[in-house]
Amino acid sequence: MAEQTGLEVKPLGEFFIQERDDDMLIAERCWQFGNRCIARRPRLLTNEEWRPTAQRIVAALAVPAPQPGWQTMDTAPKDGTRILLWMVHDNAKYSKHPVEEGWEAAVIAEWIDHNGGGWTWHGLFGRPTHWRHLPASPRSAGQ
């Protein structure tokens, strides 16, 4: 198919360079919408002239963001980013081993603005005390 359309796709992690005879762009793989263009070669440059810049952009985008440890809730992102929340049930205060007994646990959550805003998650009922970024998936870590 690449020969029929003159399209060459070079995968580089989640972002990749897509070349045609007269055009080059940087795209992001998006499970929901297919590929999404994030940058296009300036018309004044040839593909050969822009390729090193495009490769540097893709390399920079492929570097994973730092994954700090658990942080307090006042720093949690409220933009819809999926994160891990550490949830603590009210009954945890009565337990000598709250994690083992299921009164404290990490859940995947995100902030939603609906109805005044708030955290949404599935699992343990309780209050969030800390948060951290989701770890990289095995696929993005090259495993």
TrEMBL record:
Superkingdom classification of source: Bacteria
Name this protein carries in UniProt: DUF551 domain-containing protein
